[in-house]
């Protein structure tokens, strides 16, 4: 095949009436050497125009997004739902709005200054209001499906109950310490073990004291002189002898020498070397610091005797319950060691110091202890009953507490339910004390309160909805993304020529059949 696509003379395809037409050379455009064709040059300029237009549109869109709404948009944003424009407040100036990504928060009562120097004073933020509730009406089928039940408010004699833990301790008012008022040596021990029960007046030990023996001898001598000088006619002699006898006897008494020992001293006329010391109270020996042949001083605590006929129970009460407890309130104690046994006592006192670590207040209770069943150090469970008198109560399930308020739902009959806010008091078992908001005999809903609360909120929201007037959305249509969309739509893409076309249409040469 030649460059001009001519058919060879001996080709069978070159025969026929159309052979000349097909074999005629094509008309080529005049193209100067070294220069591109005209249609390539036009396409280049069209692409350049498109790129410039796109760059301008992108720049305009970026500028609008970073400059914020125009003053006219700011005025339109202040247009109320009713339509008319509202004047700006005193001191408020129109200005650019900060970008959407920035922070517009201004402290309550503070001020914010725009880049133009205009100061905007902000009012304190309003507190969020609780969602309003509206009366609702339920059909019998709806009431049955949600399991609605009703009850009533009534007056009852109620008593509050507090439960807390405690421990048994010795009643400090029933403790007795055994000490001597003179120095000496221990001779014999009658009570030699801790925990032993002793009775009042029972001998505990004997002691030998040189000071005590000397005082006993002085007493015997004074008594002898008093008898000898009792009949003297000299003024003051008999009285002086009697005074010396009284001073010696008082010294023995100050040393707590028992009266029967003094009588024995007078009867025998000889000083007693070993003086027995008796127990000052009945109880159990809680502490013993004495051994035979030990030298003791007046400050040595030899025995500690505790009367456990009554014991203390010290319980830890949270400080928010301290104001509800007073001395004389009845209390009960249970111990795991005696299942089913209940010990009854009274509140004795509230200690003045709160534990800073646990924020609890120690409360002291007194309990009788027959048979020594409550032992010091034992862990017990305390239940304190606080009589509240005659109060208006409702079932605890009837109250719906949302955190900021307490609600009950009054049942008016025929499916009509009305929400009402109330003030609740202490919880007493499965009931709640109502301080304000209800009257005796009011019918209330005692189940499905959560579903009813949701229905009441939906009813209130539907009743408060007001459709916007015509044209209320015009102001919002001028702001934000709408402006950006308008800017994009305002860019018109054009070509030259329009629509674009090639200066030389494609070749429409007929298909050449191929014969094998």
Structural features:
Elongation Factor Tu (Ef-tu), domain 3, disordered N terminus, 10 helices, 516 residues, 4 domains, 6-stranded antiparallel β-barrel, elongated, conserved putative lor/sdh protein from methanococcus maripaludis s2 fold, alpha+beta
Quick rundown:
The chain is an alpha+beta fold and 516 residues long. It has ten helices and 23 strands.
Describe the structure.
The chain is α+β, with helices and mostly antiparallel strands and 516 residues long. The protein has four domains: 1-73, no CATH class; 137-158 and 391-464, conserved putative lor/sdh protein from methanococcus maripaludis s2 fold (Beta Barrel); 161-171 and 306-388, Elongation Factor Tu (Ef-tu), domain 3 (Beta Barrel); 175-305, OB fold (Dihydrolipoamide Acetyltransferase, E2P) (Beta Barrel), CATH 2.40.50.100. The chain is 24% helix and 28% strand. The chain has ten helices and 23 strands. It has helices spanning 19-23, 38-67, 71-77, 140-145, 210-228, 237-254, 259-268, 449-464, 474-477, 481-490, and strands at 111-113, 119-121, 136-137, 150-152, 154-170, 175-178, 184-189, 197-198, 203-208, 275-278, 283-288, 295-296, 303-306, 310-318, 330-334, 342-350, 360-368, 379-395, 400-401, 406-413, 416-428, 431-436, 443-445. The strands form five sheets. The protein has a six-stranded antiparallel β-barrel. It has a four-stranded antiparallel sheet with strand order 6-13-11-8, with no helix packed on it. Strand 15 (330-334) and strand 16 (342-350) form a beta hairpin. The protein is elongated. The model is unreliable at 1-31, 70-121 and 506-516 (pLDDT under 50).
